[in-house]
Design a protein that fits this description.
Helix content: 55-70%
Number of strands: 0
Largest sheet: none
Structural class: mainly alpha
Strand content: under 5%
Oligomer: single chain
Length: 162
């Protein structure tokens, strides 16, 4: 379902379809569909007719010719054998959750984990580390639950000092 149509988006998608004409039909259709879906999602909150927002999003994507060329040659831009860079906040989230630091690590795990997921979601190249970020968030919430439980138990326990 389209949120709104925009002549700039329609022209961009026509240019993309033409630039991707050397791709197999199913791959070309999938590419155009993915870009269309991305643009609809990115522009969902913008008012219809906001040409500046549309232009900014189209510029951020790059030219249709660049996208088609990248789809035609999916060779990695990294040297052969180089691993993708895992999101640093995702790693920090898991480490903070595991090390815990008397409960402070649980809070840091949540902060780092949610920040990592946002960065990974916003990354155009699908930065790895989503699983680590999710693990850090889960462990962080478990850590918070443990701290809250301990505080409640201590407050309910009668003080035996004289």
């Amino acid at each position: 379902m389209k949120v709104h149509t925009d002549p700039l988006v329609d022209d961009y998608l026509r240019r993309l379809d033409a630039a991707a004409s050397t791709l197999p039909a199913d791959q070309r259709d999938e590419l155009v569909s993915e870009i269309r879906d991305h643009l609809e999602e990115a522009l969902r909150q913008t008012p219809a007719g906001d040409q500046a927002a549309v232009r900014n999003e189209l510029e951020r994507l790059g030219s249709p010719e660049e996208i088609a060329a990248a789809a035609a040659d999916p060779a990695p831009s990294q040297p052969a054998g180089a691993a993708s860079q895992i999101n640093g906040f995702a790693i920090a989230s898991v480490l903070a959750a595991v090390l815990w630091f008397a409960g402070l690590g649980a809070v840091l795990a949540l902060v780092f984990g949610y920040r990592a997921r946002r960065q990974i979601k916003d990354s155009a190249d699908g930065q790895p580390g989503s699983g680590l970020a999710t693990a850090g968030i889960i462990l962080g919430w478990i850590g918070i639950a443990i701290v809250v439980t301990v505080v409640i138990l201590i407050s309910l326990h009668p003080n035996k000092s004289h």
